[in-house]
Structure formats: structure tokens, C-alpha cells
Specification:
Helix content of chain A: 40-55%
Shape of chain A: globular
CATH architecture of the largest domain in chain A: 3-Layer(aba) Sandwich
Oligomer: homodimer
Radius of gyration of chain A: 28 Å
Strand order of the largest sheet of chain A: 4-3-9-10
Largest interface: A-B, 48 and 48 residues
Strand content of chain A: 5-15%
Distance between the termini of chain A: 55 Å
Number of domains of chain A: 3
CATH topology of the largest domain in chain A: Rossmann fold
């Protein structure tokens, strides 16, 4: 079996995964800024890391998975000037910023639950770590990489780049960045356009602000992730993940802050970036009108959707692409995923019902099959290859069910364990309920209507004196706990 | 209609409810310390305040409902010395305290969801408000009500009591408290046994600690609630709730801290305390072996339970008692509640199907009935009286269904609105799914079998050349999206 290789965004190479302190693995993933409902691009990112988390645990690592909630400091336009995204909503809706935070944190958790995305080990918030952020800024200032202007503290990228590389992750060179950056508009306190805020001085118009050694203010957006990953995972940890769009400037700034505070030149071993979603080939964005919500996707209530798809279909669809590739949403692709998932679930159902002999079939190598599954995931978590492998195995299952080949009971048991392990535990597909969510409710309603209609049909049969078939319907219903009562007014029924 | 009266634990009287800043109401409820799974006593407390929250919103208030999560500072034994409850679990399990916090916060949220208890508007954490707690301690010291010893800060109850009353809420007198208090053991830094910690100096053995003007440490347990209620609801707010066991010392200390920091002598208008659960007449406690979990109650997997009860049955059972009375758990009482809830749900079902005439029945006064419902809740949220009133109304519904009396359609519509309002929105009973949890799954299985049998019946009818009825079955099934395909091998069916 090949060992686990991970494509490291920092080196741009697939690298052998070696944990710093096995069996422990520290993994940090940038979570949502909770100022609006989660969109499907977020879901894809968190789903990708959910499968990485599941697989690492599955192969025996004890993962401390930290995924933050950004509840302060993320400004409109992702810049260093202006209004806080959450503060803006609070101002417009005339509520407390923390009410905004609570509402969208709840929504985020609800959506994660629907898609069977596991909660992280720790879900820290930016507002919950103001003291730690202040301590970190002090260290960065002491180390000479930050300066104070008018109550705000900025990170000096140029100064930092004299001692450590800057731009490695995003592949940018400092001088090129300089040439591409607009001049300071004179409004800014920054000495250099490349610099970024660690602490922002805040007047009364900012609803969220705290006392600090530099006056009343709030932390810069990039800082929380450096501080919380260090607090919970240490100065050096294994994996840092997030969406591709965070690579620059957010993750680049994180690296600079981590090194700037602790002078540890290699704070994060493996960087993993998830790719984005497109819709019919175009980037998914609210402004394009193609950024549907998870709820719209499930109910089918959106002009671009022909109908709704179950959460497990969406999950399966997303895993049919590799996390690092773009993934295109279309009705055709979703319907293909639905068909594929049905096939997979049916295969497992068939497998469960199989019974085998005592003699193993030597032409079927279950171990080789298992190894193929592991190898797929060990090759940078390649879920599409894993899924293709699992589909391949269904041929064996079907051939056994059709008695074309025969397996021993032991082989069947091993095969079932592989399917449950990889489908349920690694891919996180709830295969036994994959299609029940939407249908459940309608089927229950259907049963009631169906019974109603059958009772009517029986009445008709009785009127036509077809006692035989009328009784058959009564007997069928009675088997399902439904009793028909006949009276002068007609027939009524009740559920046992 | 009588206006809303609330039994104020502070005055020990029912008082007319007057909001400070209508239509806004600020309500703070002490939430869980997240170091173990939620027990049913907690569920009852949060359910009581859920109904209070729902009712206040129902009658038109805009409630900002703050319920905290205690994730630091609550020490084993509820004292001022020793180990943090969460820190202890973290030490024993060799994990981060925040991993303990995350695990039991998730559990708490899951349980709240199961019992249909709404999330609060803001759910702040103690660790998220260290800076605010430090600021508050500074103010209390400045006001002369706290002192520093060896890096810890204590609240001076005696000094405070010279300026403001202490013990009003719990009805304790300072001198009696003194006589009943054990002497200081010489280990403590307190000047007086009545004093309590605002900030505790902490050595390396404490996993959770922060820098402060008094050295490294952590906040005292009582402080967070004062600080977070003030931050989100203001120096004076309307309602403070919690379990009866928190009245002393926790809530007494909160009042002292609020006044000590802000010198506002009347910080909280109405104090509401929920009473406890007993089991077969004995106090529910883990040590008694009668402290079953919500899960055990639902599954029936506990030696004291004859069988499981649905979450809505448990919710209904709890609301059959007044929040301020003790409530005794027994199989008999739960089964009575289940029967009652079934009766109520069936009543609503009957009501939905009723159709009425044009002439109102003058002997049935729907407005008087509605007023009785409001009056029950306006009398200190008296849910048992409300439920009795709703049961009373079912007599009218049944009499109408049995054609003993007649109602106009308008009267029926009004009645239905009252039931939906009070059962669904005020009591929070999901009446339409109250009993579906278990049945749902079996019904779905049933439908599949039912369809299977109908397809067989149709085949038989066809064999008997009864084309007419065979077609009827095909048409009925087709209406429910089920297609029958005939082939040489027989008939198969598929769901659209």
C-alpha cells in the first residue's frame, strides 16, 4: 500500500505526509465569517476538509481539528479600511452584532448538519480571543515587524521580508506586488501599501471594540487565525486548509504573522486549498444570480434547478470531483450523481443480502481491492478515484448476486466492511437514508392518500359485489395495521 | 383580559410586568457549564424559559434573549478554590479544555433541538468576555467593593452591604450567613468567609488562564453573568432567569457585582426561578442513579423506565407542571402525558377537518375561550391551566364533529387559530409530527410493502381478466408517482 501523499500548496508538490507528533495531527481550517447565509462554495470547502478529517481519523490519526468562526474584524471588501461586515448588518437591522453572529452561526451549523459534515474538535471565535491577539501583536512589535500609527498597528511586510521569505505560498514577489499595488491614498496610516492591519483604532461608529495597549479598537482580520491556530495547535502544526480564494492575502499574512510573533520559520507543514464551484461553467456568485443556497438546492426552488436533490446526492456529487479541481454544477451532473449514488446504495443493499460459501474465490482478490481504495485516498485524498473503485467493486457484487461467480462468506464480509468503511466513514455518505429526506414526508402523505383511495376502491368493488377482491384489499391493509370500519355512512379507516 | 403578571423571586410577589423599554424586552438566563452531558433538570429549566420567551414574543414583545455558555471559571464543588470543572475533564482525558467545551456544547445544542427549544438571540461564552470581565473588576475595585490579595481579587460582601442590601433575593441576612459559614481554613486569601472571587490567580496547573492587571489568572464563576448581561442588555434590564439552585450564592453575587460595578441599585427588574425535577418523589441526581439522560428517556433504555417517550411527550409532560413547582417523573405520569398529548393532537386534527355553517353558534363564545388561554399564560405563565383550557375546548370540537352542536365556519377558523397559536407557537409542541418519529420509518417500509402487494393484486386481477380493476390500481399508484412496468417476467414498479 502506498503511504499518504498530500499536495502541499506551499511547495506545489505532492509530499509524503509525516505528522509532527504522531498519532496526533493538528489541522486548522478557516471557517466562515458569519454575516450572511452559507453558500454552496463554503459547503464544498468544509466538505472537502470533512473528508480529509474523516480519512486521517480513519487511518488511525488522532486529529485535533480547529475551524474558526470569524465574528469580528472582517471588513467589507476584505480591506483594512471601512466597516465590519457583521457590524454593517447589525447597523442596518438595528440589532446587536452578536445577534447577527448567533443567527448566522446557527444557520451555518444547520447546513453543516444537513450535509453530514462533522463538527470540528474546537470552533473558536475571534471575539473570544482578543487577549491572545493583543499578546501576539505585542510580540510582533517586539520582534520589529509591526509599528503603531494613530492607535492602529500595522505589520511591516518589507521589514519582515528582509529576514524571512514573503509570498512563497501565493507565488508572489514583493517587488512585483509593489508595482501592482495602488498608491496609498493619503487617507491610510500605512507606511507601505503592502502592510496590513493587526489592530485598528476604532471610534464610536464601530459597534465591536475593546481596550488595548494602543487604545480602543479591534483586531485585523488575518490575525485571529494565526493566534487561534497557535493557541490550540502549537507554534508548529501539521495542516492548514481553506478555500483557494484565501491564499492571498489571508494565508500569506497568516504565515508572516506566525513567524513574526514566534520566529519559527516553518509554522505550518502542509497547506491544502480547496477549489471553487462553478455553475454551468460560470463562477458561482450572488451577483451572477447563480449562487443558490443549500436550501434552494434541496428543494429545487431556483430558476437554474430543474428539481431538488437530496443532501446526500449533493455531497456525493461534490466528492465525485477532486477537492483541488473546480467543480461545475449543472442539472445533468447532479442527476448523474444521483444515479451513481443510487447504484452505490443498491450495491451495498445487495451485498448485505448476499450469502456465500466456504471456499474463497481465488479469482477475486479482496485485499487488492481494499488496497486500491486506500491508495486512492492516499493519493492526495482522491475521492473520484475512490468512487470509481467502489463502482468497479459493484460488478463483483452483482455477478455474485446473479450467481455468475461465487464468493465465500468471509470474502463477502470483508467486502461489506470495505464498503461501510469507505462509503459511510470516509466519504460520510449516510447510504441507508440517502434518499429518504425529501421522500419521507411525501411518502407519508402518500400513504395516507393511498389508503384513502384503496378504501374507496374497495367500496366500489363491494358495490359491484366483487367480495373477493374487496376482501383482498381489506386483508392487505390489515397487514399494515390499517383497520377498515364499515357503517351506514360508508367506510372509515384507522391506523393501529 | 388580565395583563401579564410575573412572580418576581426578588419581591416574592406576583407583579404586573412592565417592560423598561417596550416593545423591547431583555432577558438573561444562566446557561449550562459545558463539562458533561445535559441532564433532564437542565432541560426543564431551559424549556421553562423557552415558553416564557415564546409567549413574550407571541404577545408582541421583541425579546433579546441572552443565554450564556460557561466554559471557564466554574470550579469543582461550586467553590472558590480548586480545579476548574472543564479543566479537570481535559486533564483526565488529556485533551484541550476547548475540546471538552466543544463536545458538550454540541451535545447541549443537539438536546435543545430535539425538545424544540429555540436558540437564544445571543449565546455568549465566559472565555469570549475576559476583557469585559477585567474591565468590570477594575470598576468594582475603584468603587471600593473588592480587594486584591496575592494576585486574586475578592468581592467584599461586608463592605458592599454597608451601602446596598445583600441577601434580598435569597432571603438571607448577612449576620446569619456569617454564623452559618465555616471559618476560613487559613489556606484562603479571603478576608471574610462571605467574600467571593472575581479573579483567581492561577499557576501552571490551570489550563485556562489569561494575563490581567493582577497577574495571570481566570475570572470567578459568578462574574461572567453580570458582565455579559450588562454588555448585551444594559445596566438595567427586564428579566433574569435560571434554576432555583442558582439563587444562592450565584444570583445573589450577580446582583452585588452589577451594583458594585455600576452603582445602579436596581439592575434587574424581574427574577424568575425554575423549579427542579424529582423521580418517583426523590431528587434527580447522578449519585442516586435516577438521573437519566434525554436519550435514555427517548429510547426507554434505563432501568426506571418502562419504555421510551417521544421528545414532544416529554415536552408536554414538563409543561403540564408550572415552572415554579417541582415536577415528579414517573412512568405513570409520562404515560398520562402521552395520552393527553394524543388527545390534544387528535382534537386539532378533528378541528382541521370540520366544516361549519354560516350562522354562529351563540352558545359558544370563542372570544371568552381565547381570553381564558391568554389569562392562563398572563398569570405567571401558567401552562398547566392553559393546557386544561385547551382540553376543555376539545369538548366543543368533538361535540361539533359528532354533530351535537354546530359552529359557523368563522368560529371554526377562529378556534383553529387559537389552537395553532397556543399549542404550536406558545407551548412549542410540533403537534403534526408529535408521534411520527417512530412511525415514520415503519410507514415508509409499509408503503413499499403495500405497493408490492398492490402490484401483486393487480397481476391477479389481470390473470382473472378483471381489466377494469387492474387498471384502477395502476391509476391509483400512478397518481402517487409509482409506475408499473409489465414484462414477460411479471410486473415491476418504480418510484418516479
Amino acid at each position: 500500500m502506498q503511504p499518504l501523499y498530500i499536495h502541499n500548496s506551499l511547495s506545489r508538490k505532492k509530499e509524503l505526509f509525516e505528522a509532527i507528533n504522531p498519532p496526533h495531527v493538528g489541522m486548522y481550517v478557516c471557517g466562515p465569517t458569519v454575516y450572511s447565509n452559507v453558500h454552496l462554495g463554503n459547503v464544498r470547502t468544509f466538505l472537502s476538509f470533512d473528508v480529509i478529517y474523516r480519512y486521517l481519523e480513519f487511518i488511525g490519526y488522532k486529529v485535533r481539528y480547529v475551524r474558526n468562526i470569524t465574528d469580528v474584524g472582517h471588513l467589507v471588501g476584505d480591506t483594512d479600511e471601512g466597516e465590519d461586515k457583521i457590524g454593517k448588518i447589525a447597523r442596518l437591522q438595528k440589532i446587536e452584532p452578536m445577534e447577527v453572529v448567533q443567527k448566522y452561526t446557527n444557520d451555518f451549523h444547520d447546513v453543516m448538519r444537513v450535509f453530514n459534515i462533522l463538527p470540528p474538535s474546537i470552533e473558536p471565535t475571534a471575539t473570544g480571543h482578543i487577549i491572545e491577539q493583543i499578546s501576539s501583536i505585542k510580540k510582533i512589535i517586539e520582534n520589529g515587524y509591526a509599528y503603531l500609527v494613530n492607535g492602529s498597528v500595522y505589520f511591516s511586510v518589507r521589514k519582515f521580508s528582509e529576514d524571512y521569505p514573503y509570498g512563497e505560498l501565493s507565488g508572489r514577489k514583493i517587488d512585483e506586488l509593489m508595482n501592482n499595488t495602488r498608491d496609498l491614498d493619503g487617507q491610510s496610516d500605512k507606511r507601505d501599501p503592502l502592510d496590513f492591519a493587526l489592530w485598528k483604532n476604532a471610534d464610536d461608529s464601530h459597534l465591536m471594540r475593546w481596550p488595548s495597549p494602543w487604545g480602543i479598537g479591534f483586531p485585523g482580520w488575518h490575525l485571529e487565525c494565526s493566534v487561534m491556530s497557535t493557541k490550540y495547535l502549537g507554534e508548529e502544526f501539521d495542516i492548514h486548509g481553506g478555500g483557494m480564494d484565501l491564499k492571498f492575502p489571508h494565508h500569506e499574512c497568516e504565515i508572516a504573522q506566525n513567524i513574526g510573533a514566534n520566529k519559527n520559520p516553518n509554522p505550518i507543514r502542509y497547506w491544502i486549498h480547496g477549489n471553487m464551484l462553478t455553475v454551468n461553467g460560470r463562477k458561482m456568485a450572488k451577483s451572477e444570480g447563480n449562487g443558490f443556497t443549500p436550501e434552494e438546492l434541496i428543494t429545487g426552488n431556483h430558476k437554474l434547478l430543474e428539481r431538488g436533490y437530496s443532501p446526500m446526492t449533493v455531497r456525493f456529487f461534490m466528492l465525485m470531483g477532486h477537492y483541488a479541481s473546480t467543480l461545475d454544477f449543472s442539472n445533468d451532473a447532479l442527476q448523474a450523481a444521483e444515479k451513481g449514488l443510487k447504484k452505490l446504495c443498491k450495491g451495498i443493499d445487495t451485498l448485505i443480502k448476499l450469502s456465500g460459501g466456504k471456499v474463497p474465490n481465488e479469482n477475486v482478490d479482496i485485499n487488492a481491492f481494499k488496497e486500491k481504495c486506500y491508495n486512492a485516498m492516499n493519493d492526495d485524498f482522491n475521492t473520484p478515484v475512490l468512487i470509481a473503485t467502489l463502482f468497479d467493486g459493484i460488478k463483483t457484487i452483482n455477478a455474485t448476486a446473479e450467481k455468475i461467480i461465487e464468493l465465500s462468506q468471509n470474502q463477502i464480509d470483508q467486502l461489506l466492511k470495505i464498503y461501510v468503511d469507505f462509503v459511510e466513514h470516509v466519504l460520510g455518505i449516510e447510504w441507508d437514508t440517502a434518499f429518504k429526506t425529501e421522500e419521507e414526508v411525501s411518502m407519508i402523505m402518500n400513504e395516507v392518500n393511498l389508503v384513502e383511495q384503496l378504501v374507496n376502491l374497495r367500496s366500489e368493488l363491494k358495490e359491484n359485489k366483487d367480495w373477493d377482491n374487496a376482501d383482498k384489499i381489506r386483508n392487505i391493509l390489515s397487514e399494515f395495521g390499517i383497520t377498515i370500519k364499515d357503517s351506514k355512512e360508508g367506510s372509515t379507516w384507522s391506523h393501529e
